[in-house]
Design brief:
The protein has 184 residues and is an all-alpha fold. It has one domain (7-181). 60% of the residues lie in helices and 0% in strands. It is globular, with a radius of gyration of 15 Å.
């Protein structure tokens, strides 16, 4: 039987492979966003799992950026982790580095919000408050249109994620801002 991770196990694993403050902060933000969406979308009983997926989604990125979403599968299989966890984490690289398609709503949320949290965070840093607490959709939309702003945050991936979920882009951005407010 596959090993089940606790949140602390996931944090320990994350910190084993990631030392950079930026990557750690991103993992914690995405974890909080995933927990928020689990509760909002009717998966409260699975919120711990959604959060762990968020924590570990970029587990391999710092050490293996050229094998992102590929190396993580090996790392997790070596530890006999649940296949559901491995699929969820790897699927956020769909059509980028892997052909593992997000199938569960949770995987689609991760796919849609991973890049978006980075873009929203960058917009927030431009504000006097440096916070998402007073951030509104129109501010994000304005910066979203500028391809030079937060250029590393793929608009194509964000839009593909919104399509996977069947959500309008504005709704995805608004919901992600609300999610980020809960974990700032």
């Amino acid at each position: 039987m596959a090993n089940q991770l606790t949140k602390q196990d996931a944090i320990d694993l994350l910190e084993e492979y990631n030392k950079d403050e930026f990557h750690l902060k991103h993992a914690y933000i995405v974890a909080g966003v995933m927990r928020y969406f689990a509760e909002e979308l009717g998966y409260a009983n699975d919120a711990d799992f959604w959060e762990i997926v968020g924590l570990l989604h970029d587990l391999d990125f710092e050490l293996y950026p050229d094998e992102h979403c590929i190396k993580v599968q090996d790392i997790m299989k070596e530890r006999d982790l649940d296949e559901k966890l491995i699929h969820a984490v790897a699927s956020h690289g769909y059509a980028i580095t892997v052909d593992i398609e997000p199938t569960h709503e949770m995987e689609k949320v991760l796919y849609a919000t991973d890049e978006l949290t980075g873009l929203i965070g960058a917009v927030a840093l431009m504000r006097p408050s440096k916070s998402v607490q007073d951030l509104e959709l129109k501010s994000v939309r304005k910066k979203y249109k500028s391809s030079n702003f937060a250029a590393g945050c793929s608009r194509e991936v964000i839009e593909r994620g919104a399509d996977m979920l069947g959500w309008e882009l504005g709704d995805l951005i608004t919901k992600t801002i609300l999610a980020m407010r809960t974990c700032e």
